[in-house]
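User: Can you help me understand a structure? I only have the sequence.
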Amino acid sequence: MIWRKLTIGACLAAALLTGSVGPGGAQDSIVTLPDTSVSLPTIDGGDESVPSSSEAPAPPAPCGGQTISIARMQWPSAQLLAEIHARLIRQNFGCDVEVVPGDLAATASSMGVNGQPAVAPELWITRVPDVWNGAVKTQEVRQAGATYADPMLEGWFVPDYEASAHPDVTRVENLKTYWKDFVAAGGKKARFISCPPDWACAVINRNLIRASGLTDLFEVVEPANRFELDTLIAEAVSRKQPILFYYWQPNAVLAQFGFKPVDLGPFNKDNFACLGRMACAEPKPSSFSPDPVIIALAQWVYLEAPEVAAYFQRARMPFAEMNALLQNLNEPGATIEGVADAFVAARAEIWQPWVGKPAGAAAAN
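Assistant: Let's start by predicting it. Here is the structure, written out as tokens:
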């Protein structure tokens, strides 16, 4: 993704205000009286009916009669989420829905000022902490929940065929046992494929190798750019070679080839802060920092369309599913809209719990 260079290796986000949807109040029963209209004679001898004053009021318009505007950010995963949610909200709640262009900082600011757009499905709040915290203070915007069902967005991976051969290789301490599997032909050390040297994760990975006691066993390879990183991975997988490498989610590469994450142990705030410094004297183990990616909702959605707010509190996309969607997007002729349509049509078991139905229930029309 084009923004990844700016986002990798971020530390913990500031504490955020959160909220939840409370139960909606029950509507009063509407009592209808019998038809009391009477027939009066007209000049030409016909009848003219006098309308009754006891007609029931029209039902309330869906979603409070307002259009649910959904921000479509510039990167593919956010674009897919915007189109998927637009289809499901329109289909299951009968709302008027509009997908509008979005920008990370501008969208958060606009939601805080005037409650528009109504939804930002993939908001990386640690990228714009001041804007987000300021927006929350206005009480015009709230956090509905996490965008993804999985907490970790970046880490170390091994191919699934290596994990099948040695299931315990997916724990960092066991890399000392299996390090020879990762030695390239003619090499003396195993290879760890890191990220480009000008990315923040390069510093973290070098320190993690030291913290994990792997310095004498693994050499760190830092590709020049994202293209070279993907090429090194693809070449190793095409030859069925074991490879240990750094990557992030959501991303099509992880769905395209099939990989398993390496358990780096629990996250430790102080340890991770040192891992991000070039002059970290004594690096200690830690997993990567969890990076909050949230669904942001305008406050009015909770008040005027509570069923939609509840939907977004449940709408957590699994990483594996998004990785597969991004892979589908790479197919010749694929479009954001087409991939979103296919997801809604074929993956009801994923989205039915979002709309309040058990997985496997009959899909909505």
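Now, to help you interpret it: The chain has 15 helices and twelve strands. Residues 154-275 form a domain with the D-Maltodextrin-Binding Protein; domain 2 fold (CATH 3.40.190.100). Let me know which part you'd like to focus on.
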